[in-house]
Design goal:
mainly alpha, 2 domains, 0% strand
Amino acid sequence: MTKKLTITVSDAVYKGLHKRIGRRKISRFIDQIARERLGDRNSPEYWLGASDRELAAAYAEQAAYEAGRSAEDKKEDEDWLNGLIGDALRTDRHDAEG
């Protein structure tokens, strides 16, 4: 959903937006800047409205993070996840018996 917003900018900003961004692209440009500055990247709602560029940058950031992690760190994560799965299975089995 979109909302119409009226803003006031200086003449220099107005001319710069028209010259560098283009007449029909200013709203999208301002929306993207505001989203990047205001959005909570940990919120699922943020990513539902993210642009392709934002998603690509986030995937690249995550890939770089994963590539820089040691095998030992990855093994610890895997063990932790497997422990969670085991806990969940034990809870389900207990609920079914009780």
